[in-house]
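G.,

No rush on this.
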Amino acid sequence: MLFDLPDPDTLYEALLARDPFYDGRAYVCVSSTGIFCRLTCPARKPKRENCSFYATVGECIQAGYRACKRCHPLAPAAEAEPAIRVLLAALSERKGHRWSEPDIVRMGLDPSTVRRAFNRHFGMTFLEIARLERLRNGHVALAGGGKVIEAQIDAGFSSPGAFRAAFARLMGQPPKSFAADAAVKADYIDTPLGAMIALSDRTHLHLLEFADRKALPAELRRMHQVFKGRIGIGRLGPMDQLEAELEAYFSGRDARFSVPLAFHGSDFTKAVWRALVDIPAGETRSYSALARQVGRPSAVRAVARANGANQIALLVPCHRVLGADGSLTGYGGGLWRKQKLIEIERSHARAIRPGAPSHAALDGQRAP
């Protein structure tokens, strides 16, 4: 099930109103200019007779239209906002810098506008994202065998207490709680949609989440309980395989994954996650369809909770579940990421044989 477009007159009214509901779900092609835009484009509105509407960027390009340079329909919605684009570029250039509101003002930006924009797209402020980036530097130092004081300095924190508290908020536990000789380890993996934190042992992946997801610290605390505190910082074999498969996924070469997965949850929750894995890339399902698939048609809310509790993002594709009306609904990694993932997978769909699962090595290789 993909989002079904309403009639063209409804979409034209949405274009005039710059309705954000359709952002990433519908695009307008303007015959008088030869360009296609988001329905939220700030440009002057075209005449109704010059407009045609499509559900995907690919359809617009195939119809012979080029992307608008004002609303950037080829970019995720978050990147189309100038303040976000400028600040994320600055964050990448000034690694380790301790960002503050005066820095934002000196760049000619309004802190309150920036705060609203980042909260709308990322669920956190720019300053919180910048703090996470600094913590990552500390994580890298610890993974390389450095001491906590060295990690604190690399992360740009002025006091050990502040670093330990910030590290614990992100990773669920303070640095000293991570065992050096642990059989299960946590490490960062970069993706075009942001850094992710992976947790694996020598054979299976146990967790994969975007580093800025607010539920991540609670998820890592649960993993500490599962493994009785024996979690370390560093990289094990499945993470290298995962990184290679994620690179193939985002580059458009292959949407299938074969990293063995370990599920932690009730039997019902695991059944929902297995059903998610069975959704082919390029397709979506409603919560009610997923409930029928697991043999519990009346348990739609329970299915939604299990979907939200998924701890292995992308590989267990909870982003492929939409509302009954085709709306994106909630996604822990942010709706802008969900939109982008669905767009990426539509481009994969033609290259995958019909009905092929997205995780080729799931059955028979999953830890209990």
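When you get to it, here's the other one too:
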Amino acid sequence: MKFSKGNIMIQLDKVLYTAKTHTSSGGRNGTSRSSDGRLDIHLSSPGGAGTGTNPEQLFAAGWSACFIGAMGIAATKLGITLPADLSVDAEVDLGTGADGYGLQARLTVNLPGVARDQGQALVDMAHQTCPYSKMSRGNIDVAIRLA
């Protein structure tokens, strides 16, 4: 399966999982449900009066969770033990620019008790392997920092 990423084509040799959702009833002001029923949410526009979440929050949650997984893989390769209380704070901005609507994002990685040089090595390796990082690279402004 091939996916276009700017001028780079990413090809998957093996699909490990396919997430399937159905979004209806107004898009940003509608509902979204996964095919297995585990996700069943109401959506609201950012800053709107609705009580649902929005795509930017979902992207931030997905990326931060995936990034922690990528740090786990990096930690194994580097022989570093991750702290149980590690966390990633994600911020995703929706804004406008010359090309219309767009996103930018920031991840702040918290690795209590991990030496700064080891933490930075984990963050750097995770950013190279995390699928969300790969998807965003070269497409949106991203800042990833170690707290």
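Helices lie at 55-78, 116-129, 131-136. Strands lie at 2-5, 8-11, 21-24, 31-34, 40-42, 87-97, 100-110, 141-146.

Enjoy the weekend,
O.
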